[in-house]
Amino acid sequence: MKRGILHSPVTLPVSLICSPYISTVLDQFTSLGYVGPLKVLTQAQCRGLLAEYKRNDYPLIPDWPKALAASSANVFRIATQVSILEPVKALLGNDVILWGSYFVRRQPGQQHPWHNDIESSVLQGKTVSVWIGIDNTTQSSALQIVTGSHLFHQSIQEVRHLAGVDRENAVTDEVMRWAHERNADSKLVIPEIADGDALFFDGWLWHASHNIANKTRTALLLQYATPDTPIRIPDPNNFEWPFKTLQHPKPPCIMISGSDHFGVNRIVPPPPSHDGREMYTLTNQIYTIDIPLASDDKTGWKPYHIFRGSTPNLQGLTCHVSALNPGQTPHPPHQHREEEILILLRGETEVTLPDLASKGLSTTVTLKPGEFVYYPAWFYHTITARGDVPANYLMFKWYNRNGEKAEGQNGGKEFSIPDSQFSKKKDQVHKLEYGKHTVADYYNDKRTEKLFYTSRVFQAPTNCLHALQCHTSVVLPGGGYASHMDAHDVAIVLLKGEIETLNERVGPNSVIFFPAGQLHDMHNPTQENAEYLVFEFHGNHPPPVKRKRKTLWDKMKDPKSWRNKFSEITNRFR
Questions:
Q1: Is pLDDT of 549 > 80?
Q2: Lowest mean pLDDT among 115-119, 225-229, 266-270, 563-567
Q3: How far lies 75's CA from each of 58, 220, 358, 549, in Å?
Q4: Is the pLDDT of residue 129 over 60?
Q5: CA angle, corner 111, sides to 109 and 113, nearest 5?
Q6: Within 10 A of 312 (CB to CB), how many other CB atoms are there?
Q7: β-sheet bridge partners, residue 399
Q8: pLDDT tier, 240 (very low <50, low <70, confident <90, very high otherwise)
Q9: pLDDT reading at 439 higher than 80
Q10: Which end of the chain is least crowded, N or C, by CB within 10 Å?
Q11: Residue 174, Cβ neighbours under 10 Å: how many?
Q12: Which residue from 146, 159, 124 is spatially nearest to 205, judged by alpha carbons?
């Protein structure tokens, strides 16, 4: 089969989707039928997805193979993360359902003939597919598309049927001839694409693949639609035109944005994310926050999901960033089982803390960029944006099963214990309580003779953890540490400068997460200092106590020791 012309579209950053240039993106999608490649996943996320595909240990997928996200919390998390969901919403609007999700694997030399996805070939509504390279993705194994073919509103299967050509004999030259009969400007595009890159394309776009590389390629296909688009399962015995679909069962669709006012699809809840074996085990994570974040003028508050899962030390851990308009609050004062850290990145906020009233203190505290607060479990709190610009803040929330609320338990009874008072002696250990901290107070510029140094903010046990430790780190040019693994989980918020970790260069306003047992490193390849905030989550069980070895005198003083020795002697003479 003739490959045609290799075409390399300009890679568009995700930030472009949420910028004034959105009209350019929409124009390309409208005229050509696709956008990309866009970088949407980190290498760590690709490795995690590949490992999940190989394990194949997720629960039974309901009804059909394309419902992976309805069963796998990991795939659902990927399908709803901001780097993917925001472009989809820009193309479809705010009301979006996720109806298709599955892994696509192609062996060396394997072809997937030219086709349209049957579920997308409907005149009502609109669909967008997101094809993401996971492993061994190159131009030699990438998706092939015919630009402008989405405007035909005629599937390639119907065109083949009318021409009397069967599925396997529709070669690329013939397909392009059919396309040029309908649009002389249509082109064959084979994008330059790598692992972690995605193509966003209209459901009507003609596409195929031919892996001419010598390695097996794995991709993840996510498929979205407006809720008025009727999605039905194709008849597994008939993939040719005219299409036949099953009316029952309707495939499970997940509402991931907005609402459904049509009722033409079967909407199911997302998979469990906090309890049970469906919880995704986190791997190394890197995510850069594009400050300032776009806010929602209708609701006044817009959260952006970053990651969610379990770790060796935590039953559940979530991380997200939010944009909150001035004068707005996301919810009334509330409490929950999770412990929480809130870091202000932009703007100004006021946190409301009703539990402080019992101490005779003000129940409102002002936060400015570079400041953060810690809320213990079951501590009442909320936040309100002040000033002239939307507030952007980052949150970590976590829990363990041993952190359930005891009868009569209430937060806010004590305050943060300074690090100087932290002791390993059992009778002197205090649980960490609410506290506000300013990151700049803990940097020490006088120790610049070192290439890497830290300053502790606090360390204390919590309701969920044996110890929660927080410290600031400064990495001078050329500084860092070699690859290693920790027994605790580590969350890092990069505030200034750039660092290199896991073979990726990371800039300011980035979140880095290393679960316990995962190899990681750190290096500053620039000529400027890098400054970041670190949170260490130490397991929910105290370390084993080393017993003091008994001396001979201790044994002689122990009556039990004498009884045991006497029994041993008498037993010899029996």
A1: no
A2: 563-567
A3: 10, 9, 45, 52
A4: yes
A5: 165
A6: 16
A7: 316
A8: confident
A9: yes
A10: C
A11: 16
A12: 146
Q: For residues 204 and 117, give the distance between their C-alpha atoms in angstroms, rounded to a whole number.
A: 8
Provide Rg for the chain, Cα atoms: 28
The rounded mean pLDDT for the chain is 83
**Which one-letter amino acid corresponds to residue 488?**
H
Taking the C-alpha atoms of residue 434 and residue 413, their distance in angstroms, rounded to an integer, is 9
Q: What 3-state class would DSSP assign to 30?
A: helix
Is the CB of residue 236 less than 8 Å from the CB of residue 243?
no
Q: Tokens at residue 416, please? A: 């943060």
pLDDT at 446 over 70: no
Which of 470-473's residues contact partners 24+ apart within 8 Å by CB, and which partners?
Answer: 470/374, 470/437, 470/533, 470/534, 470/535, 470/536, 471/442, 471/533, 471/534, 471/536, 472/439, 472/442, 472/443, 472/531, 472/532, 472/533, 472/534, 473/531, 473/532, 473/533, 473/534
Asked whether the CA dihedral 303, 309, 310, 313 is positive or negative, the reply is: negative
pLDDT at position 572 = 56
**Phi, psi (degrees; rounded to nearest 5) at 31:** -85, -40
Render pLDDT for 82-107 as a digit per residue (tens, 0 to 9).
Answer: 889 989 999 999 999 999 999 999 99
Q: Are the beta carbons of 253 and 83 closer than 8 angstroms?
A: no
pLDDT attached to residue 74: 87
User: Over the range 194-219, which residues count as b (16 or more CB within 10 Å of their CB) and which as e?
Assistant: bbbbbbbbbbbbbbbbbbebeeebbb
Q: What share of the chain is helix, strand, coil (3-state, %, to 5)?
A: 20, 35, 45
